[in-house]
Amino acid sequence: MAEMNPGGFTPAPAMRDQLETRRRLLRSVPGLRDRGDVRALLSEVDAALARLDDGSFGACDRCHESIEVDRLNADPLIRFCLDCLTDKQSRALERDLELASAIQVRLLPPSNVRENGWEIGYRYLPAGPVSGDYCDVLPADDPSKPMHILLGDVSGKGVAASILMANLQAIFRSLIPLDLPLQLLVEQANRLFNGSTLPESYATIIVGRLHPTGSLEIVNAGHPAPVLVHEGEAAELPATGVPLGLFQDARYETRRFDLDNDDLLFLYSDGLSEARNSEDQLFGSRRVEAAVVSSGATGVEGVLGSCLDEMAEYCGGSRDDDVTLLAVSRVAR
Ligand SMILES: [Zn+2]
User: How many angstroms does the Cα of residue 62 sit away from the middle of ligand 1?
Assistant: First the structure.
């Protein structure tokens, strides 16, 4: 999801609290505060607080341009923009990114799942080494129980967004085995996510529960409406609640559908609908829907391939946001 305020950086009040908490913690552990590395950290925290006081926080020490917002959110102690890193710092950052990227790939579900009369496939395409999109498929541990599909998008980009994405996955993977009603599952996840993010962070997400009987339950927390194709006709499933992380006590509604064989549900992140062509026009949700309907008969893998082909053709292959697609079809057992 693109950053809402890509220009300057206005530090959230929580940034100061966070730094002051770190300072208190560093000072409070006996035996630690005299260690050289801890003293160095303390002086970095003090310097960041001083930059908050004099208004220079977020400006690069070398070129005085703004430091990238997602990097500052991930580490308020950094003092240089990406363009001004030394070779040694660049190499360290590259190694960190390679590792983060490898970890994120390992968090992904199996690429195609066929179970209990459902087929699920997805495509996960980060714009950079790591992504703020979240995609998950959780098969049931018992064939009488439902499977879960999740597709979400965390605010911001890059490393900070990917950390939030991993947090969101851990929250849902811990809550799903509790067998809560779907709206309560999402409400609980919202409370946990809200308590663990910065005030300006949020995530849109769709959570679907696929029962072995063919019935589908779905909650859409502020995410672009998925497309449901039933008997060749498409319908959009609009939001049933606000994005996660904004309000502690947000409420969500569950919608229910009974799917027949070959019905198809298509979820996507805004990297698809907001892809732009050379004239800066959006791909748009209408084109997404048309692409899904026209390729609906080709099954899960056919629809995923067609949508990506149409997007690539539309924007000439250039892309600057994470794109994630997930398709679910009811299939004969
Ligand atoms: Zn700089």
Answer: 5
